[in-house]
Model the fold of this input.
Amino acid sequence: MVERQVTVRNYPGIHLHPADLFVRKASKFKAEIQISNGQITVNGKSIMGVLMLAAETGTLLTLRANGADEQEAVDALFDLIDSRFGELAEPGRGA
Amino acid sequence: MSRAPEVRPRTGRDAGRKSLTFHGVPVSDGLGSGAAHLVLPEQIAVDERTLAPGQAADEVRRFRLAVRRARDEIQALRECLVDADDTGMRVLDAHLALLEDQELLKSVVAAIRSDQMTATAALRSIFQRMISALESAGTDYFRARSADIRDVKRRIVRHLDGRRGQSSHVPEGAVIIAPELSPSESAVLDPARVRAMITGHGGATSHAAILARSRGIPAVAGLIDLTQQVSTGDWILVDGHTGVVIVRPTEAERRRFAERERHQRRHSRLVWREQTEPAVTLDGHAVKLLANIETPGDIDHVLQAGCDGIGLYRTEYFYLASLDLPDEEGQYRAYRQVLKRLRPRPVTIRTLDVGGDKFASYLGTSRPDNPFLGVRGIRFLLLHRDVFRTQLRAILRASVHGSARILFPMISSVDELREVNVLIEETASDLRREGIDLEERVARGIMIEVPAAVTLADLLARESDFFSIGSNDLIQYTLAVDRGDEKVAHLYDPFHPAVLRGFAATVEASRRAGIPVTSCGEMSGDLYGAALLIGLGCLSLSMSAPRVPEVKHLVRKVRLADLRNTAEEALRQPTGLDVRRVLTKSLAELVGNAGPEPLPSPPRAGLRRDGSDA
Done:
């Protein structure tokens, strides 16, 4: 299992659209992905789960992945949050 | 934000169903009349039964079918929008993503199976968890997203009941009346079917208001109890300019309104012929008439109306109408599009002016105690530098495609202006280092909308390239009046002598410093306001595009020398009422009945406590 912490940097945080981007990215990996805000831990491949974190700007999150591509998964998701989502958002549906 | 309706019963034809007049907040200009179509929040009847053994499988099937239908419905709505703006599209896309979330669907199914809940009860319990999580957030924008979650839930429940979407039922020629419109309901408002729109909650910055303006649907907000006074089918008259709504009008009221509508059409045809004529006074002074816009979609109106450019491009739209803060690329594309189409005319892009009432708009709940005195405008941008830098980069990059100017909101000190100027320079050199082509220097100006900026206008003028008078906020801050508060709204007086002196001082400071000044509040589009501002020496006015032809018509009928005299006389008056008398008398003399339509009577605020209708 790989674990890494990341702080939410985009304003105002991981609301609907960033949650959608996160889940899309997470779903590309085989590893199980969990994300925690210190109080609750949710499935990183579910938009419902990610929304439940109510992760506003400045929230410290813990990413955990377990599976074949766990290291790549955690790094990619770390980058997504750390780069404030927007800069990685691709045009097209949902972006 | 919300304002209780003033109900003043009138004598109608039949005693039981009186004509009623309401005063709401005008949010989208124009006259519209038609039959009321009520859009009420659906009462979701939650079926609390415990399922009998063996029923769960059926209930799960029913739920899955409802989700599938909800998805199909959103897909169908998306297809209607393909050529429309992408605002509605983004709302629908996000809803689709939720309907496709496997974990969400599995949780509902699990609740049905293991807790023997009905589908409606299971949905309520699962969705409520998400809603509560979002509503616990500290940011208004974040909390506002719970409206989307509710919207998705309602859509599924409708299909569980075998009902179709409400939006598809709007009859042709309807006046929509709703306590509030959900994001997806607003997204699919069809200007061909809807004559006007009245909402209870949400001001000028709600989803619904923004879409109404960009689609040319007259709209009034802030009439909270209206749905209780109206039945579907009642005839309704809506004046999106003054905010007056008449329910079940008398014959006489209907005739008068129809006459005004005819007048408006005739007048606009007449005024329209002047669209290619220059806005020059009889004594040869050119007045710049610019447009205020919110989206690239507004450009067609701007070009049709014969505007000299864009005096105020509000960028809040991005942040309020989409579900996301846009990235640099998205903003760059929008700015570039506007600049290219307007070239060589100037386009003044105002950086984000959020805070105040803006993020709280469509939920209308839990805003800071004193949002107008809190973090908004430049204060917000200086606190969220990444948001600010992203926007500056996008504007600077787009600047090579036309004639761009940058405008900063809510400046109240020279320090803020200096901080902003440093930030622009830094951003510009970053971009140059990256090898990106830039204009040598993009003009930067400030909004004069805080009394402190008026007082310091001479000092601010030394360090900025232009001024833009934001009359709406300047009036509000000068008079310490929140327009949305019905107990003091009558004190909001654009013609208050203190306000006039503020305008005069700002124009004078810009003249001495040799920098241009534009006025971009609602006053610029009001004929009396425009006459006054021009008379004070502000020869550049920015307004919503549909107002331009009429103001141009006025400009071409008067002499600047006469307006100067009028403004001087107005400045000598001790009260707002006296100012109005001077303006009314003077314009009647200058324009008289020669115009195709008598000038509208002065706005009612401050004239009478009860405010008679227009």
Notes: Chain A touches chain B through 30 residues (CB under 8 Å). The two ends of chain A are 31 Å apart (CA to CA). The first helix of chain A runs from residue 16 to 26.
